[in-house]
Amino acid sequence: MFENAEWLFFDLGSTIIDERIAYEHRLKGIADQANVPYEEVCRIAVEFYKQNKKGDLETAKFFEVELPGWYIEGEVLYEDAVKSLEILSKKYKIGIIANQALGTRQRLEQHGILKYFDLVIASAEEGVAKPDRRIFEIALERSNCKPDNAVMIGDRIDNDIVPAKLLGMHTIWIRQGFGKYWRIDKEIEKADCAVDSLTELCDLLQHDKR
Question: Is the CATH number 3.40.50.1000 carried by domain 7-18+77-209?
Answer without folding.
Answer: yes
